[in-house]
Amino acid sequence: MVQQRDDGQSRDAAAWTRLKPGQTVTLRAESPLHKGAYECSVIESSPERLRITMPMVDGRLVLVPVGTPVHVEGEAEGGTIALQARVIDRQGGSSRSLLLGPLPEPPAYLARRPTGAPSRTIAVTSGKGGVGKTAFVVNLGVALCELGKRVCVVDGDLGTANVDVILNLTPRFNLAHVIAGEKTIFEVLVEGPGGLVVLPGGSGLQELTDLGDRQFAKLRTQFQQLERYTDILLLDTGSGLSRSVTNFLRAAHETIVITTPEPHAITDAYALLKVISRHEDDLTMRLVVNRTASREEAHDIGQKMLFASQRFLGVDMTFLGYIPEDPAVGQAIRRQADLLSTYPKSRAAESIRRIAGTLLQEGEPNPEPAGGREGRRSFVQRIRAVLGR
Ligand SMILES: Nc1ncnc2c1ncn2[C@@H]1O[C@H](COP(=O)(O)OP(=O)(O)OP(=O)(O)O)[C@@H](O)[C@H]1O
Ligand SMILES: [Mg+2]
């Protein structure tokens, strides 16, 4: 994989023209299908455009697809020029060449992270529907933003994608457009309240589980772009035991299971834990009890659930916190606004802030596997692994 480096030079239009026709440059593609470094020759250069000879290996052309992000390096007067670019056209025939241009600009509201390591990915799920996942995800996202994190909520509820409805956003595109190659991930994102970024999933997330290698590679690259700008991906998975939900949970680094004190919600949460625990044993599971009458009730339910899941399912779950029953939650939803800015002093808002603080304080589980933080696999790569591909 190409190292993620600052693309400051790439945004400097003059840097492109310092690479001169006839000179050799090294091309690396950000694609698992084209892993090598290729020596190419510059045909012509202009501000933010570079035409180079088609890469070859052992006399064979390497067909790097249009859209693939690439890294180009060449020596110029005054030092090495390193450009982050992407293939914008590929010409065949006798004048075969690759035309490179700059990577798509991220929206102005996105701030770059200092590291290219994958984002911490937290899935939020429940056994039973309607327990408050979407409201929790959105408000937890805003609370984490308040604490200085760059957060992207991925609306992964396949049935009723409703993050946009709760926040009064009107996304025109979703992940399915990215998979189809019609849009870049930056063109699909929408800006939410308090610096929150929303990635509308739509049917795209369902398609994730049966993509071909080429499509998957493209999507991975798109997610890598997004993860340069987000510390935390929060995934609203929808509820229940469908295969795609459990795959998402297995691919996320951490899962928050939400339940209410209702007996049905609790038994459905167990059923979900049971299914997930059959596949994986090193998942980090956290419990949130929503809509509780009191702190005591929340802790009582928490204690019982942690005990039973450890004893009968072998699942080590921790208690992350609780949110009281609070009419402000529904009122904010009816106003199509987030709870934290609409009713900042409400009890529910305070609980959600506390949960956000705990999440950051506890930190991510095992953040540095072999290869260090940079070696950690992203959510999309892990989906691939979960699917055994
Ligand atoms: N702490 C709370 N106090 C009062 N009402 C709440 C609370 N949390 C959620 N609700 C209410 O519960 C309803 C369902 O919430 P939400 O849509 O977030 O659930 P969900 O789990 O995402 O549902 P689905 O499974 O359909 O996606 C909303 O009308 C919301 O107002
Ligand atoms: Mg929901």
Give a short synopsis of this structure.
The protein has 389 residues and is an alpha/beta fold. The chain contains 14 helices and 16 strands.
Structure description:
There is one protein chain. With 389 residues, this protein is an alpha/beta fold. It folds into two domains: 9-102, Roll (Pnp Oxidase, Chain A), CATH 2.30.110.10; 120-386, Rossmann fold (3-Layer(aba) Sandwich). The protein has helices spanning 13-17, 133-146, 163-166, 175-179, 185-188, 204-207, 213-227, 243-251, 263-279, 295-313, 327-334, 339-342, 347-362, 379-386, and strands at 24-29, 37-46, 49-53, 56-57, 60-61, 69-76, 79-91, 97-102, 120-126, 151-155, 190-191, 197-200, 232-239, 254-259, 284-292, 317-324. The protein has an eight-stranded mixed β-sheet, sandwiched between helices. Strands 1-2-3-8-7-6 form a six-stranded antiparallel beta barrel. It has a two-stranded antiparallel ribbon with strand order 4-5. α2 packs across α13 (347-362) and α8 packs across α14. It binds adenosine-5'-triphosphate and magnesium ion (MG). Residues 133-134, 157, 162, 236 line the site of magnesium ion.
CATH H level of the largest domain: which superfamily? P-loop containing nucleotide triphosphate hydrolases
- Read across the widest sheet, the strand sequence of neighbours is 11-12-10-13-9-14-15-16
Bound molecules: adenosine-5'-triphosphate, magnesium ion
| Number of beta strands | 16
Q: H/E order of the elements?
A: HEEEEEEEEEHEHHHEEHHEHEHEHEHHHH
Number of self-contained structural domains: 2
Question: Can you tell me the residue ranges where pLDDT is under 50 for at least 5 consecutive residues?
Answer: 1-6
How does the helix and strand content classify structurally?
A: alpha/beta
Strand content: 25-35%
Give the overall average pLDDT: 86
Number of helices: 14
Percent in helix: 25-40%
Instruction: Please give the CATH architecture of the largest domain.
Output: 3-Layer(aba) Sandwich
End-to-end gap? 18 Å
Q: What is the CATH class of the largest domain?
A: Alpha Beta
The radius of gyration is: 23 Å
Shape: elongated
